[in-house]
């Protein structure tokens, strides 16, 4: 089974299904989103959508109300294609710990979703995910996915590794190969057994090659669609691997194990 471990809701959702079909991807982990860059038809529209993204990944768009529309879009996409999408749901990180736990119980577990994410703590505040890890552990060790590209810092990655060590049964996935801090991300994930590294938006092909070499059973193929393309992301993995067990793990075997699909 080929599993894209990182994608966001598209408008229209049928465009996303077409991308997965083109890439030969069986299923995709689906996160909600507030920006929709795929809607843009010119630079002005794209700037507007990317401004929304900048606020979201910078942790300046928290609060439950800011999530509700995105959650509704996610629910609609999951209902339309339940056999293609695997739902994850993010949670506001500026809530008290008990409210974070309640939100995960009600809106993640209660909706039958498979994990939590993509979380976007403000730069320098990766510590805010600690209540999420605690709640994930309380609910059978749900996987937790955290944004790894800018504005996530190298210090944030170290904080995430420290927190992961405190919750060793909870799979903690760093997205986008840790962005510009990819060497730090590879080392930290290598040395923290409960951490995984998702490979989307890598800007250097040898970064992907080294990540897979160091972490053959803890790297995950992902596209970050619509920001990336599943066809190109899959081709990148296949370019740096040979047919066999490692490629199969990266392209879906490890994700299937994390998501308890096998």
TrEMBL record:
InterPro entries documented for this protein = Amidohydro-rel, Metal_Hydrolase
GO terms (molecular function) for this protein are: hydrolase activity
Endpoints of the signal sequence: none
Q: Which SUPFAM superfamilies match?
A: Metallo-dependent hydrolases
- Please state every residue range assigned to the domain named Amidohydrolase-related: 63-260
Q: What's one Pfam family the UniProt record gives for this protein?
A: Amidohydro_2
- Name assigned to this protein: Amidohydrolase
């Amino acid at each position: 089974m080929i599993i894209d471990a990182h994608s966001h809701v598209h408008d229209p959702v049928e465009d996303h299904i077409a991308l997965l079909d083109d890439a030969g991807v069986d299923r995709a982990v689906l996160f909600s989103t507030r920006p929709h860059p795929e809607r843009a038809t010119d630079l002005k529209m794209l700037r507007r959508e990317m401004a929304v993204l900048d606020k979201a990944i910078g942790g300046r768009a928290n609060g439950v109300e800011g999530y509700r529309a995105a959650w509704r879009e996610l629910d609609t996409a999951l209902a339309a294609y339940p056999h293609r999408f695997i739902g994850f749901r993010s949670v506001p990180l500026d809530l008290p710990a008990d409210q974070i736990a309640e939100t995960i119980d009600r809106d993640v577990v209660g909706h039958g979703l498979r994990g939590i994410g993509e979380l976007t703590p403000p730069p320098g505040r990766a510590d805010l995910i600690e209540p999420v890890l605690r709640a994930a552990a309380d609910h059978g060790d749900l996987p937790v996915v955290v944004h790894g590209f800018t504005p996530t810092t190298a210090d944030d990655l170290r904080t995430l590794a420290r927190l992961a060590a405190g919750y060793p049964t909870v799979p903690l996935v760093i997205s986008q190969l840790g962005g510009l801090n990819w060497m730090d991300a590879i080392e930290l994930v290598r040395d923290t057994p409960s951490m995984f590294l998702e490979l989307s938006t890598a800007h250097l092909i040898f970064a992907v090659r080294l990540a897979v070499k160091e972490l053959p059973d803890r790297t995950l193929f992902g596209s970050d669609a619509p920001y990336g393309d599943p066809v190109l992301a899959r081709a990148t993995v296949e370019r740096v691997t040979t047919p066999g067990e490692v490629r199969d793990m990266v392209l879906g075997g490890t994700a299937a194990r994390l998501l308890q699909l096998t």
